Each structure stands twice: as structure tokens, then as C-alpha cells.
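Exercise 7. Given the components listed, write out the predicted structure of the assembled complex. Treat all entries as one system.
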Amino acid sequence: MAVMTGSPTTRRISDLNLTWTDVGPFLALAALLVAGFLINPDFLSATNLANVITRSAFIAIIAVGATFVISSGGLDLSVGSMAAFVTGITIMFMNAVAPHAGLWAIPAGMLVAIVVGLLCGLANGLIVTVGRIEPFIATLGTMGIFRALITYLTNGGTIPIDRSLRDAYRPVYFGTVAGIPIPILISIAVAAVASFILYKMKYGRKCAAVGANEDVARYSGISVVKTRTIAYVVQGACVAIAAICYVPRLGAATPTTGQLWELQVITAVVIGGTALRGGKGHVWGTVAGAVILELIANLMVLSDFVSEYLVAAVQGVIIIIAMLIQRFSNSK
Amino acid sequence: MFSRKWIAAAALGSLLLAGQAMAQDKKVIAVSIPAADHGWTAGVVYHAQQAAKEINAAFPGLEVVVKTSPSAAEQVSALEDLSASRKPDALVILPYSSEELTQPVKAIKDAGTFITVVDRGLTDSSIQDLYLAGDNIAVGANTAKFMIDKLGGKGDLVVLRGIPTVIDDERIKGFQDTIKGTGLKVLDIQYAHWNSDEAFKLMQDYLAKYPHIDAVWANDDDMLLGVLEAVKQSGRTDIKLALGGNGMKDIVKKVIDGDAMTPVETPYPPSMIKTAIYMTVANLVGQAPVRGTVKLNAPLITQANAKEYYFPDSPF
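Answer.
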């Protein structure tokens, strides 16, 4: 049990039982919103914010899964390719079923997406745990495999969704409930379920224990293999949910779908306060991290003083500054 | 046991020799192209394979062999294998990069092979017998001319660029040089890496930033798909034109259907590989002189001529 308190959460903020690591990402988010408003007031317009947060949903949902993997001491580089692969399989299945089942093809396809995602995650997990291969190498391998498979399935071109399904499926990305875009609601739901699992259930404690110190966890009777494998399966499920939201946006899968998402996902998790070396996971921080990344990109376009050639450099600097602010507020 | 192994080896060897002798009777055209990793290269692979099928059926004395390579290094290896195993009579190559491929192609040239270079030139242009490419400056310039006409010489534009490369620079230059001095004003220009998702996001941001936009130019059709989706979502009616480039089948179909926002398209057709293969065949079989440089125009694709550029079975 000593393991659980081993995570680097230092000062507590009075009675709320919050730590600086918990609130850091949200402070950064608030600072970014203020800075954005000063640069261009349009930044805080409802349409712009809704667009940007909706866009960040894919990375947020996948990053929630990555919080499990990273918390348990693993890493998954294959998520972007996996998202493309799941998207491709889902669209192909929906197109094949549509002539017979009509609009039922959509829920059936979603189910297929989840199953494929779970299986991909399970494969990653087993290669890492049972195969005892370093997560970095194992998932670098599957990253190549998933990317090649989607390129093969598309012949290098695109797999568009059947026109008859397009309009019915469109609201899953573009629709709103009570004025809130559906992808935002889905990411909140995913994060809520994840934080329940991570903070209220036994599995969550095992996850952090394995990530903090593998040997101690093993001596305490925790199955490291099982705990890590489950984390990868959760990651697979999250990728599938993201894919389900992604399909209706452009209605197609291509070999460039989800390219470099893995890096954005890992960045979101780390900005959110979870240590890359494992230990306690911060689900809501991760979601804030994903939104921060997308807001920075948005701000680059809305502001006029960054040359188009330097956008990536400025983004890099802002991310590093955000991390430094957190570090210093932490060590006080 | 030992001798039996030798007999088997000898038999195999003679078979291989026989096979080579038979292949020797045919004239071989090797086609070396990048593997399909995005829409445009997928189109190149499709059209190269179509050309091979058609020519192999039409000319029994010819064999067109298509080899795709996923990187510059692997393309170099493929060329080395090619020159080691059998000497092709002609090589049609779309090089990954100019610098790395120049020496390997020269080695094949020195063995007496006819060299056709497509799209991207080698650093030493004396190696090629035939050079065939599209016109990226015209892609930008012709799109700009159409916009000037259609918008009556003035309006506010936003532009999406691809990946920082010569191709992208030339298209943008052609466009900007043409609108210079007219009332067309580029409000903003940013990179979206020839990627639909990035283009979708960028267009959403453009729409949030500028309350009035007359026209959008995405210098590639993958990006145009993202742009159109963002415009559709916004429900804005001020955008009169959204144009792309390259000749993707989905966009050419829009032109055929008389789409109001995308009424024209400019080609940088992946099917240029097919032109190159056929011209090489014309030299090999018909002794037609083809040595020289061919620059395909980038004429506007309109409803009238769109059928010529529409390949429903191609992946691009």
C-alpha cells in the first residue's frame, strides 16, 4: 500500500484535497484562454470554442486510454495507426452491410469498431506482457503493421463511406445535444467512466502500483501481466470510440488518417500531469491537456504575428513553457 | 545423396538459364515508382499497372515490369537488383528524390538502357533520354486566372498550402504571381500538409477569424475535401468558390455534376506515368523519336472536358 502514496504529489491545496499536479493543467488552460482573448477576441466566440473543443475530442478520448497505459508503466505508439485501421475496417463493414441492413449498418459498424479496437489493444498488451518486449519497440512494430494494413486496404487512396449512410451518421460528429456538440459529451462520458475505474475501483490502484514500482507490486500479490494487458485493452477501446466519432467528420479513411496522433496523445497525457515513467494517472488533466494542444494550434491561426513557417516552433515553445510553469508551481 | 543434390542444382540452373533466355527474346521495360502511400502515388501505381496490362496484351514482344518502392533507399536497392539480374531495354522512373537516385540511374544508363524520367528530375539531366512532367506553376496560375474572372477581379481569399517542398512552392508562386496587381487579396496562407483533417481544422479557424471570405484555394484535393466539410458545417454563404488541384476522382465528379462551389479543377495527373510508359514503348517498338522534354499543360478541367480526366476505378 505504501506504493500508492509514492506518486510525486507534493503540496495539498487546503481542504479540497487537490494537489498542484491536479490543478496545474486547468490553470494553464485558463491562462491560455485569457491570452487568446487578448490576442483576438474572436477566440472566445462560442462557435470557435465549440469547434476547437470538438476537434480535440479524438485526441482526448485516445489520451484517456493512454493515461491507463502510461500510468501502468507502459507506452503505446500505435494509437494513431490503430485509429486509422479501425476507421478503415469500420467503414468497409458498414458499406458491405448497408445494402442489406440499411441504417442498421451504423450501429453494427460501431460494434465492429469496438471489437476490432479491443482485439488490437489485446494484441499490443500480450506482445508487451507475455512476449516481454519493451513497450516502445512492441508498439513501434504494431504501429507499422496497422499503418501498412490501412494503406493496403485503401490501395493508398481513400475508403469513403456509403452515400446512403453519410447523412444519417453525420450528427455523431456535427450534431449537438442541448447545444453541446456530441463528441464533447462522448469525451466527458469516457473520462468520467475512466476516472471512476482509476480512482474508485481496485483495478485503478493496481494500475498505479504496477506503474510506480513493478517489483513491489508483484510482491504485494498484484498480477503485473494482467494489469498491464488490461490497460492496453482499455486503450484499444478508447481508440475505437475515437474512431466512431471520427468517421462522420470527413466520411473516409486514408493512409494519412491519424498520422502523428500518438505524439499528440502522449503530450496531452504528460501536460495533464501523469508522469511518463508511470504511477498515478490524471484523467481530467489529460483531457485538459488535449484541449490545450488544440487551443494552441487554433491560436496560431487566429493570431497574425506568427509566420506560417514558424508555427510549429512557437507551439513547441508554448508547450515547454506550460510544463515549466507546472514544474515550478509543483516544487514550491 | 551428394550427387543427387548436384543434379538438382544443375537442373534448376539450366531452368533458370532457359527462363532468362526466353525473357531475353522479349524487350523489357522496367517501371520504378514510389509505393502507394497517399492519394497521388496510389494513382501513379494504378495507372502504371494499367499501362503494363494494356501494353503486355497489345505487344507480345514486350514485357512491362512495374516495381514499387516505399522509400528512396529501397528504390536504389530495386534499381541495383534490376541491373544485376536482367538488363532492361528501357527504364521508366519516377524518382523519390533527385540526389539519391541520380547515380543508380546513371549506372543503368551506362549499360545501354533507354531512360525515361517522370515528374521529379535527376540532378544530372544528361542521363535522361526522355523527361516528362506536369506544370506546377500552371496549376497555381490557371486556378488564379479562373478566380479573377469568376470574382470580377476583386475579392478576399484564403489559401491552404501543402508540405514545404518545391511542388508546393511552385504552385503558390504561380498563384501569387497571377493575382498580383488585381483586386484579389490573400487574407491568410498556412500549411495544412496535404492532409484532409488538418485542412478541416485550418478552414474552421479561417472561418472563425474572417467574417467575410469570397474564395478558398487548397492547392490539393485531399485538403479541399476537408475545406468543403468545414464550410458546409459553418453554414456560411459568403464563400463563392472553393478550388483544389491534382485531379482526384471525387472532385472531378463534382465538376462533371456542375457543382456551384467547385466548378473547375486543375490537373497534375498521376496518369502522366502512363503517358511516359506509352511514349517509351513508341520508341522501342515503333522507332518513333521521343527523346526530349515533355511538359504536360495544366488546362482547366471544366464540365465540358471533365470526362477525359475521370477514372472511377482508380483509387485517386
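Discussion: The two ends of chain A are 27 Å apart (CA to CA). Residues 1-10 of chain A have pLDDT under 50 and may be disordered.
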